[in-house]
Amino acid sequence: MEMLLLARELAVARKRRESRALVERAEPRSAEELSLAASVLVELRDPEAALPLARRAVELAPDDWRGHLAVADAAYQQRWWDESVAAARRAVALAPEEAAAHRALGVALNRRIGDGREARREVKRARELGGREALRMPGRRSVWWLLLLVPFVASMVMSNVGDWPDAVDALIGLSRVVLPAAFLVLTFTTPSRAGLTWPQRIAELRTANGERYGDGGRAARLRAGVVVMPWSCAVAAGVGCLAAPGWSGNPLPTPAVVSAVLIGGGALAVLARRTVRLWYGERFLREVFLPSPFVRVHLVMAGALGGGVLLLTFGDVREGAWRVLFFWALTWFLLAMFSTLFLQRVRPAEPEKEPADG
Length: 358
Hints:
Elements: H1 2-12, H2 16-26, H3 31-43, H4 47-60, H5 65-77, H6 81-94, H7 99-109, H8 116-130, H9 144-159, H10 166-188, H11 198-213, H12 218-227, H13 229-247, H14 254-280, H15 282-289, H16 293-314, H17 319-345
Helix pairs in contact: 1-2, 1-3, 3-4, 3-5, 4-5, 5-6, 5-7, 6-7, 7-8, 9-10, 12-17, 13-14, 13-16, 13-17, 14-15, 14-16, 16-17
């Protein structure tokens, strides 16, 4: 137990490798140890490893609120809102005076459509019981990306507005290269910050996704609509980039446009297929993703956007047609993003009824 307590302190202090090493050495067996180990893994942002431990803790001690809290937090990090809400409700029922239980229920309810009022009530109760510190989410994301995004956006705006001294222009050009590179480096080192390598992290995610979405149920069908969104947005963004020069009166050369549409579109389709197989498994790809009506709608729209670019490239059109295509791509980009946010909040199934106490 002392080893796990130390691991939790190290995880909160962001000493992730040391914390994970202690968790792996601890070999928890009792319900208390399992729930504590799960909470440490949640702090390390590894919910795929935390959830089985938390569920085992609930099996061993169904009346211990800490196991249910660990399930709620791990499910929340995996965006499984219904399971998180159900577990948090049970934790609140078992320990109504514990601020952490109310916090977990409040944040999970806030992710579901129609539960905003109850979510605010639970968060308020958590603050009453434990103060502002009680609202801290375990394993919360750092905001380091804001330190990169803000100057990057500023440099993009400055490069298109006004004339700047040579030194400032050089700094703007450097920031447009260095900041995206820093973002990529930090992104690709994310697993190491949880004490994992990329192959280990991908294997964990594929196993968890296979268990969650491999049955082809409603949750899996909704997930297909979420998974296809980044690829559809990439198509819309690419079409927007091809249409912008035509809108300004300087369309790109025909060979460049044709190559971008055919080669780029084909490469994107192959990459999407392989990525879905890597993260979700072959069964999800063939039985859920490819037959999904969400995916088919996105494919039709991608084909229409690509066909529109080729049609305008080979035809004798006015600049206004390129403007229409640009705003069409922009509209679809926004619709794809907001529809995905909606799908993430849709309940895949009716919440399970809580067993009556006593």
